[in-house]
C-alpha cells in the first residue's frame, strides 16, 4: 500500500469537515482514484466530478497520473468569491 495526503477545499472540505485526510491506496493507483473514493464516501459530490482539477505535489495533473508513496493530492473544485 502507498500513503497519500489528500488536501480538501470548498465542497470537499465541507463534506468531510476536515482540511486534509491521510489515505492508503493500492500501489499504482491513479489520482482519479482519490476522487472516486471521495464520491463513494459522499455521493452528493458526484456533480463536481467533471469540473474538479487535480494537483499532485504542487503541480496540476490529469486524473490518470499514478501516485507514489508520500504524494500530496489536492482536489480543486471551481470556487468563487469576492
Q: What does the secondary structure layout of this molecule look like, with pairings?
A:
Blueprint lengths: L1 E7 L1 H7 L3 E6 L6 H10 L11 E4 L2 E3 L10 E5 L6
Parallel strand pairs: 1-5
Antiparallel strand pairs: 1-2, 3-4, 3-5
Family: Belongs to the MoaD family.
Protein name: Molybdopterin synthase sulfur carrier subunit
Keywords: Nucleotide-binding
Could you explain how this protein is built, in words?
The structure is a single chain. A hairpin with a 2-residue loop joins strand 3 and strand 4. This protein has two helices and five strands; from the N terminus they run E-H-E-H-E-E-E. It is an alpha+beta fold and 82 residues long. The longest helix has 10 residues, at 32-41. The termini are far apart. The protein has helices at residues 10-16, 32-41; strands at 2-8, 20-25, 53-56, 59-61, 72-76. Helix content is 21%, strand content 30%. A five-stranded mixed beta sheet has the order 2-1-5-3-4.
Brief rundown of the structure:
With 82 residues, this protein is of the alpha+beta class. The chain has helices at 10-16, 32-41; strands spanning 2-8, 20-25, 53-56, 59-61, 72-76.
Structural class of the secondary structure composition? alpha+beta
Low-confidence residue ranges:
none
Number of DSSP strand runs: 5
Which radius of gyration do the C-alpha atoms yield?
12 Å
Oligomeric organization of the protein chains: single chain
Helix segment count?
2
In which range does the helix fraction lie?
Answer: 10-25%
CATH topology: Ubiquitin-like (UB roll)
User: How many domain regions?
Assistant: 1
| CA-based shape | globular
Query: In percent, how much strand structure appears in the residues?
Result: 25-35%
CATH class, anyone?
Answer: Alpha Beta
The neighbouring-strand order within the major sheet is 2-1-5-3-4
Mean pLDDT: 94
N-to-C series of helices and strands: EHEHEEE
CATH superfamily: Beta-grasp domain
Q: Which CATH architecture? A: Roll
How far is the first residue's CA from the last residue's CA? 41 Å
Largest sheet geometry = 5 strands, mixed
